[in-house]
Amino acid sequence: MNKKGRLSDLPRKERITEIETLRGLAFVAVVLQHSIAHYSLVPQAGLQDGVVLAILLMLAKFAVPLFIFITGMVLFYNTGDQLHYGQFMRKRVMDVILPYVVWSFIYFILAKRNWTGFGWHELPDLALKLVTGKTASHFWYVIMLIQLYVFFPLFLHGIRYVYHRYQAKGRMIALLISGAVFLVLTDQLRNIMDWMERLQIPVLTDAFTTYADRNFIYFFFYFVLGAAAGLSVQRWREWIVRLRWVYWMVFIILGLRFIYLLMLEFQKPEGIRITFYTVSLIRPDMTLFLIASIMVMYQLASKLHHQRVLYWLGWIGGVSYGGYLMHLLVFRYSYIPDEWLYVAWGWNPAVRMIVTWIVALGVSCMLTWLISRLKWGKWIVGVVPKHGPSSKVTATTKK
Questions:
Q1: What is the pLDDT of residues 370-392, one digit of tens each?
Q2: What is the rounded CA–CA span in Å between residue 14 and residue 88?
């Protein structure tokens, strides 16, 4: 590395074969969750459909935490001894924030009931929604991700201090302490909201009340866990093998518990109504389930050797950011054949949900890939690998 310590001058690191597979799994799960959310509201959905939806939802709940884990793992694996923050943020602006702005504007325009064009008087409303991720329901994740990028130097300094200051045992204790702090935060969500509401601090009060669901503090541990994996990939893989019985047991027991709680939630005084308030991301028992889910998915990705499955999951992972940005819009048009055909054919909501999920997933991925082939495509869907994934994927891809 030269005196300036440019990231581009660092030697190419060994490939991490699981990254794109994990990213593909996460995006598949994201689309599945949003398909479940829609079909839980259809009038035909009964308790039997609710059981299917609840099981599938718990199997897909890992999506966002896994994306955050991947981000932490990749950033800490690739960052050299010196971080050039300007260069780092410039890349995120071009690859992540700019496509987000483009799609935010698209959703903002489409949300207008009567098309009258875009007026300058709407700029304050658009700006607020851009900053808060309110132009579309799934953009909360992008806002939370941007916060992780902004505060990355603080994470880098603190985690590297622990990594260089302590041996393996000390690092594990530090990770466990940060996990315990995270559990307390998620457990005290309501109390923190009440406290901040009383203080009425500009910006901060809103960050912990109105926009608490996209505050990076309530998701930081998944990023820290990814950082620990990225700084010591081989040791992380060893722990994945060593702890497999523990996290599989947590995954199964808590998963079944949440499914049971959802069954109770569905039974309202007025009859069966499918809702998913019980499985909010920010609660301590859900946090334990999600950590176990990340480890389960990592083990599955590590054990997957079917070349065709690896290829397609890797390809989906490569187009996942653009697909994430557009997939709710794609869903709008995926519901058209559902209303025209699937209902007329007598399909139950669970089957309609699965078909629509597959259609929306495929169209989102294909549109992202096609747009990325255009000269200006990266401004719309981010950076997409030009030649598709191989069975071994580098850790230097986006996110």
A1: 999 999 999 999 999 876 554 34
A2: 21
